[in-house]
Amino acid sequence: MSDDELIWRIAGGSGDGIDSTSQNFAKALMRSGLNVFTHRHYPSRIRGGHTYVEIRAAEREVQSRGDGYNFLLSLGDSFARNPQEEAFYGNEEIKPLSENLDELREGGVIVYDSGLISDEDVADLNLEERAEENGWHVYPVDLRGLAKEHGREVMRNTAGVGVTAALLDLDLEHIEDLMSDAMGGDVLEANLEILHDAYEMTEEDFEFEHDLRAPTGDHDTEQALLSGSNAIAYGAIDAGCRFIAGYPMTPWTDVFTILSQNFPDMGGVSEQVEDEIAAAALAVGASHAGVKSMSGSSGGGFALMSEPLGLAEMTETPLVLIESMRAGPSTGLPTKPEQSDLEFVLYTSQADSQRVVFAPGNIEEAYEQTRLAFDIAWDYQIPAIVIYDQKLSGENKNVDIEFFDREVSPDLGSTLTEDELREAAHDNSGKFKRFNYEDAEDGVSPRSIPGQKGGRYLATGNEHSPVGHINEDPDNRVAQMERRLEKLEAIRTELDEERDSTQTYFGPDEADYGIITWGSSQGAVEEAIERLNNDGHSVKGISVSDMMPFAEKEVTEFLESVDEAMVVEMNATGQFRGLIQKELGRYGDKMTSLLKFNGNPFEPGEVVEGYEVNVAEEDQQPDAQVRIEPAAGD
Amino acid sequence: MSAFNAIGEEREIDRDEFTPGVEPQPTWCPGCGDFGVLKSLKQALPEAGKNPEEVLTVTGIGCSGKLNSYLDTYGFHTIHGRSLPVARAAKLANPELEVIAAGGDGDGYGIGGNHFIHTARENHDMTYIVFNNEIFGLTKGQTSPTSPKGHKSKTQPSGSAKTPIRPLSQSLTAGASYVARTAAVNPNQAKEIIKEAIEHDGFAHVDFLTQCPTWNKDARQYVPYIDIQESDDYDHDVNSREEAAEIMRETEDVLNEGTVLTGRYYVDDDRPSYQQEKKAVGEMPDEPLAERYFDDDAEWERSYDLLERHK
Ligand SMILES: Cc1ncc(C[n+]2csc(CCOP(=O)(O)OP(=O)(O)O)c2C)c(N)n1
Ligand code: SF4
C-alpha cells in the first residue's frame, strides 16, 4: 500500500540459505536505522520445496508482515527436485517465481536468477504480459553464474543481495560488516567480491525503470533483532530458569535449542529426553528439587504432558510449560501457524484442573509474559503456560536494547529457607506441614526443598493431608480443594491490581466498533485498525493475553464500550470467541468471528476487508481464504 | 553455608527415624511382600549413613507406590509409570541428594517401560527398586508384564498369550551399571543389596520379588530361591557382562517354574554415571544447581549479555 516501506521477499528452496540470508539482510536494514519485521513461510521438508522470507522495513514501527510485498528476489531451487509430476511442489525451478507472483504489488520489482530459471520456463509463465498488466519491473540476473565465477555456487544468495542493494540504492556498508562478523578468510573474500560484482554489474547492465527505493530511518537507541523464540528463551533466562527438558517438535524446538545452547555457559542444565511425558516430568522433578525449570512442546507433544501438568498442580510444584501452536489436528501442517490449541491448553488434564495461561502477542510481550509466567508459577505453586504459535516463534522484529536491561530473578517464590522452616508448623512427628490450609494466604502454603533441614514432607498426586500423607477424609479434601482453588482468584487480583495490564489496546479510546484478538494475530489487527481509522471509520481494538485467569474486567469493559465487535483469530471454530462467551456468559449477539486457517497468518488487509464485509451487513464472505462466522442470532 | 544442611550431616541415625511418627499405617494386605521392601530400606539407609532429610524417594502408582507414605524421608509419590523422569531430574538439580525411585512391575516395566530403558541407558546415579509381584495389585489382579504366559486374570480370562518381560536382561542391555534381584522373603540379602545399590555410583536396578497373597496366590517366584553369591554352583563373575547375561537368561527362563536365583547379577564400577558424563562434556555445573538459588553471592548471567549477537 504505502510507498514508504520496503517489503522484500526472498524465495527459493528450503536449505538454500534463504533463512540466513534474510536474517542478515534484515539486520542490515535495522542497522541502517529502519524498523523491520520478518515473516517466514516454509514447507515441512528439509531440502527443496518452496519457501520464502519477507522482510518489511519502514521508518515507522512495523508490527506485521503487511499486505503483499513489493520486491521479489527469486532464487532457483537447485537442491531438490520433486520426482512426482503431480506433487504440490511440482516444478521446483520456476516455483520461486511462479508461486510468488500473486501477492506482488503493483509496480513491484522482480529479480530472478536466470542461471537457474530458464527463459523457456519464464516464457511459460507469461511473465512479460503479467508484468505489463501490473506495472512490474523485471530484472533477470545470472546469480548462479556470478557466484560460480568466484568458485562458490551457493553464494548466489549474496549475489542476490548485491543486486537488491543496487536496485534500491542501499549502502553496502552494513551488509559488509555483518558478513565480516560472521565469516572470515576465503569465504568472506569470495562473498564480498560477489556482493560488489553483483552491485556494480546491476548498475552497469540495467537502466532502472522502477521507483522503489529503500526507505530511510534513524533509531534513537540501539536495537536488537529478535524472534519470538529468542524472546521466550531470554525471558526464561532472566526469570532465573536454569533447567529445561524437552523433546523436539516444531515450532517449540527453537526455544529448546536456544536454551540448550546457552545453558552450559550459565551453569544451567538442558536435557533432551525420550518423550514429552518424561520432559514435563523432568521439569517437575527439577522444580521439586529447588531449581527453576521448564518444558514445552507443540500440540501433539503437549498432549503427552497433560499427566505431569496435573501432577504439578496437585503437588503444587511450580512449573512453566511453553506451548507453540501449529495447524492441526494431529500433526496437521507442521510448519504453519494456527491459533487452535487454546481450548486444549486451557483444559488439558483431568478434573477441576487449574493453571495460568498467557498468550503474548508480540516479541516484547513474549519476553515479559514468560518472565511473568515464572513469577506466578513460583509464587503460587501452580503450572503456568505460555501459549504462542509458529508465526510469533519465527518472526523477527527489532527491539530497543533498553527494553531488556533488567536483573535476573532467582527468587524461588513461596519457598522457605532452613531458618524459616524452623519457625514453620510441623506435626507431632516432626514433619513439615507443607500443605497447611489453616493459615495459607491466597491459597498458597510455602514449601521446602528436599535436603533442607526440618522440611521433610511427602508430595503426592493423591489428595493429601497437610504433611502430605494420602488422605481421603472429606473435610480435608474440601479444605485442600478450596485452598488450591483460591489461587486463581488471587492471581486474577494480582494481575488486575498490582501489575501492568498484559492486555494491549489499539485505536481511539472511544469508537463504535471493536476488534478483539489474541496472540500473534495482534500485529495485523493493530495495523488494520490504524488504516480503518485513517479511512474515517471508528474502530478500536484489544489484544488479550490473560487467558486463564481470563481478563474478565478488561474484556467486559471493552465489549460494553462498542456497539459491535469482531473477534479475529487463526482457527476454524472461533475458540477465543467461545472463551469470551464462556467466561463472561453473554455478548454472544455482539460478536462476529473473522477466522483464517489456511496455514498463513492474517494480513492487515484481510482484517480490513473482514470489517468492511461485516459492517456492510452483506450476506457474503471476504474474498481470501478467510471466513466470517456471524454473531448469535444473525 | 549450604542451603541444604541435612545433606551429608553426620550423626548416629536410628532406623526408627525413617518411620513416620504419626499415621499412616500401611494399607498393604497382611502378608504382602511390600512390607519387606519397606523394612530393608529402613535398615539399609542408616547403614549407608543416610539421614531422612537427604533422601528423596520417588514412587509411581500402585500398592508399591505407597512405599514413601510409610517411610519418613522427603518423598514424591508421582503418577503411574513416571517416577524415573521425576527422580532423575531431582538428581540432576541436586546431585547431592540420595535419590531412590520405586514402583511396581506394571508401573515400571509396563507404562513406564520407556523411561526405564532410557534411565538405564543414561546410567543416572540413583537406585531403582521394582516391586515385582507379577501382577497389578492396586487395580485388583490384572495380568502384568511379568506375569507368566498363560496367566489367567479377569482381563486375560483365557490365559495370557504374552511372554513375560525379562527385566534383568533388559536393564543390562539398556546399560544399567548395577543389576540385582532380591526377594522380600530374604530380608538379610535384601538389605545388603539395597545398601549396595544406594552406595553404587550409577543406575542401580533392583528387581525386588514381592509376593501378592491377595491376587497372585499361585505365583511361586519366591520359593525356593538360591542366592547366587552364596551358592557354590554359581561361580559367576559379577563384573562380567557375558556371564551376567547368561545367568539372567537362565533364571528368567525358569522363574515361574520354581527355581529362582537372587543376588547381584551385574556390577560395573568403572562406568561413569550420567552426572559425571554430563559434567565431563560441560553440560552440568560442578556445584549443585539447586544451591545457587539460595546463594546471595551467586552470579547470574543475564540474557542481556546475549543480545550482543542480535545487534
Ligand atoms: C495413567 C494411569 N493408568 C492406569 C492407572 C490405574 N492403575 C493404578 S495402579 C495400576 C497398576 C499397578 O500395578 P503394579 O505397578 O504392578 O503395582 P502393584 O500395585 O502391583 O504394586 C494401575 C493400572 C493409573 N493410576 N494411571
Ligand atoms: S493387593 Fe497385593 S500387592 Fe497390593 S497390598 Fe495387597 S498383597 Fe500387597
UniProtKB/TrEMBL annotation, chain A:
Where do the Pyruvate:ferredoxin oxidoreductase core domain residues begin and end? 511-584
Q: Which SUPFAM superfamilies does the record match to this protein?
A: Pyruvate-ferredoxin oxidoreductase, PFOR, domain III, Thiamin diphosphate-binding fold (THDP-binding), TK C-terminal domain-like
Q: State the Gene Ontology terms under molecular function.
A: 2-oxoglutarate synthase activity
Instruction: Enumerate the UniProt keywords alphabetically.
Output: Oxidoreductase
According to the UniProt entry, what is the EC number of this protein? Answer: 1.2.7.3
A single GO BP term for this record reads: response to oxidative stress
This protein's record includes keyword Oxidoreductase: yes
Annotated ranges, domain Pyruvate/ketoisovalerate oxidoreductase catalytic: 15-200
Pyruvate flavodoxin/ferredoxin oxidoreductase pyrimidine binding domain: residues covered: 235-482
Known catalytic reactions: 2 oxidized [2Fe-2S]-[ferredoxin] + 2-oxoglutarate + CoA = succinyl-CoA + 2 reduced [2Fe-2S]-[ferredoxin] + CO2 + H(+)
A Pfam family of this chain: PFOR_II
Query: How does the record describe its quaternary structure?
Result: Heterotetramer of the KorA, KorB, KorC and KorD subunits.
Name of the protein described by the UniProt record: 2-oxoglutarate synthase subunit KorA
| Organism of origin | Natronolimnobius baerhuensis
From TrEMBL, chain B:
Molecular function terms, GO-annotated: oxidoreductase activity, acting on the aldehyde or oxo group of donors, iron-sulfur protein as acceptor; thiamine pyrophosphate binding
Q: Which GO terms describe its biological process?
A: cellular respiration; organic acid metabolic process; sulfur compound biosynthetic process
SUPFAM superfamilies assigned to the protein according to its UniProt record, in alphabetical order: Thiamin diphosphate-binding fold (THDP-binding) (SSF52518)
Q: Where is the composition biased (Basic and acidic residues)?
A: 272-281
Cofactor(s) demanded: [4Fe-4S] cluster
Q: Which residues form the Thiamine pyrophosphate enzyme TPP-binding domain?
A: 61-208
UniProt-listed InterPro entries: 2-oxoacid:Fd_oxidoreductase (IPR051457), OFOB (IPR011896), THDP-binding (IPR029061), TPP_enzyme_TPP-bd (IPR011766)
Q: Where is this region: Disordered?
A: 140-166, 272-294
* UniProt keywords, alphabetically: Oxidoreductase
> Which NCBIfam families does the record associate with it?
PorB_KorB
Q: What is this protein called?
A: 2-ketoglutarate ferredoxin oxidoreductase subunit beta
Organism this protein belongs to? Natronolimnobius baerhuensis
